Amino acid sequence: MMNHDQPSAKDRCGKIWSGMQLLKDTTESKHFLPTGLEGIDTLLGGGLRQGQLTEVTGPSSSGKTQVCLHSASLVAAKHMGVVMYLDTSNSFSPSRVATIIDGSSDVFGQRGFDLQPKDMRLKSVMRSIICESVFDIFALFEVLHQLEGSLLNDKVNNGGSKICLLIIDSISSLLAPIIGGKYPQGRSMMISVAMILKKLADEHNLSVLVTNHTVSAGNGAVKPALGESWRAVPHVRLVLSRECGSNICTATVLKHTLKVFPL
Amino acid sequence: MAAEAGGDPRAWLAVDETASAFISRSLSSRPPITLPPPLHRAPLRPGNVVEIAGPSNSGKSHLLLMAAVQCILPKEWEGIYFGGLGKSVMYLDLDCRFDVLRLAQILRNRIAEGQGSTHLRNGDLEKDDTEDEFQSSFENALFSDCMQRFFYVRCYNSSEFTAALKTVQSRSRSEVLGVGIYFVMIDSIGAFYWIDRASHPTRDHKGKSLQSVTETVVHEIRMFLQLQPALVLVTKAPIYAEGSTTTNDFNRDSSKYLLEDSTVSRCSRQEEGRTLSYRDYMPSIWQSFVTHRINLQVEEAEVPSVQENEVLSTYTSEWVQPSLKTKEKFFIVDVRSCYSYFV
């Protein structure tokens, strides 16, 4: 039978795995990164799973960026690893991160964390969040290839902490302009991005979190943007909605690898 | 022929076999395979290539996992009947969305069901702790045995896919895989469609076109099937026309032109999904290679289940090759099993 030693990131691609090897790898290496938002973590079965691509979709002001910032803050504050935050629309806000940390010291629960002065706390968290502005698809490819290269060469950040969460807020603002027919290779680029993200997630045990906007589906209903070709990409799809004039967000799981959902 | 057989034109037939002998030999060497609903309607045998087509969330990958569990489960284990095939599966993941925990969940449920039916037959409703421990070790041993027969390869592009097929072919009879592969699963065949379609090979750039990639894939699978008869199960999601599902799409009129590879068709929005789902975008070499086709659709309506507060996802399946002229509805009850009935 097959050797049960797990292949490294460099040689796991294209290798034949047995079911037991896969299961061992998943249970040992693919953990959940909590978002810190209890309802969403419950819906997702524990949070953002490493090795998977989770999509949060919803209309404007439905709380997509809030989920991203909350996840980034929690992972950074709990010293789980480094967060790479790819900001496509200047939505990353250190002041919002500060507000999240101030209001959630009980959630973060780091021993001695809430005893630190506010500015020290914020610095500690911000040191573990690498924010990059990415405004077009070509810049995204460049950043992802650089990230892949540094992960393959085992380059680490912040005293040994590896990147464990990659956030792209939002993926649709980069992909929507190229798939409308203006670029004949738009869909090819979209699927290439998808494959790179999945490869990074699986081979380097990253959780990948992307946001997507919604478009009209007729009859007053909305649906996630980017069409059918993208629909098959994420492992998990979460839809956020917010009633007018309300602070209450509703989250619905559209797709999950471990559950079968009615439409 | 006749001359060699001493003038009797029928004498040369004696060295061959009768039709009934041929049929019985074929049935014994390539017996029909029992698969879970809705794949159970068509008589499938090793050597067949089955295409499971349908939109996202129509249960394609779930059917593959159900079939995989059916294959890796033994027919019988320590006196308990499980009704599996006890053979190996090779799963080629092109979508990169396979979740081993889901496979494990389905397998554990099938094992529990098999044991449950035994307990009911024997009337053993009361169990002590010793029995629980035994059952747990029994389940783990069987689970591990089954999972050792499941093999998985992940591919991120067409060249990795063709390389994986070559690897599977060269190692299919080696000791590394132990038991010969009986099911080959590809999820999903159109994963690299847009990438391959966009690549135009030139003298300088060593790219591969969609046509040449497909030819290589078909060739490699054929070679493998010659080496070792196996059932090939392939999922295929619909490919929508360039620009037909973009963000601007949904503000247009209810009817529009859809362009896909120089094919122009006019259809209403209601018909659009169905038309696109069934339009075959794979090159003709692939289309002629496939021996069986089943189309899956998701039903809008939800059906309340027997259990409280549980709603079942309802799907329809339709065999289009061979055409069975009937549609069948089936439910996926969480990750346990499928139940089906004719519409």
UniProtKB/TrEMBL annotation, chain A:
Subcellular location: Nucleus
Keyword Transcription regulation: no
Entry keyword annotation includes Iron: no
Cellular component annotations (GO), alphabetically ordered: microtubule organizing center; Rad51B-Rad51C-Rad51D-XRCC2 complex; replication fork
SUPFAM superfamilies xref list: P-loop containing nucleoside triphosphate hydrolases (SSF52540)
Superkingdom, natural source: Eukaryota
Entry keyword set: ATP-binding, DNA damage, DNA recombination, DNA repair, DNA-binding, Nucleotide-binding, Nucleus
Described purpose of this protein according to its UniProt entry: Involved in the homologous recombination repair (HRR) pathway of double-stranded DNA breaks arising during DNA replication or induced by DNA-damaging agents.
The protein, known as: RecA family profile 1 domain-containing protein
Native source species: Digitaria exilis
TrEMBL record, chain B:
An individual GO BP term: double-strand break repair via homologous recombination
Domain RecA family profile span(s) in chain numbering: 19-239
GO molecular function: ATP binding; ATP-dependent DNA damage sensor activity; DNA binding
GO annotation, cellular component aspect: Rad51B-Rad51C-Rad51D-XRCC2 complex; replication fork
Stretch forming the signal peptide: none
Alphabetized PROSITE patterns for the sequence: RECA_2
Gene3D superfamilies in alphabetical order: P-loop containing nucleotide triphosphate hydrolases
Superkingdom of the organism of origin: Eukaryota
Stated name of the protein: RecA family profile 1 domain-containing protein
Biological classification of the source: Eukaryota, Viridiplantae, Streptophyta, Embryophyta, Tracheophyta
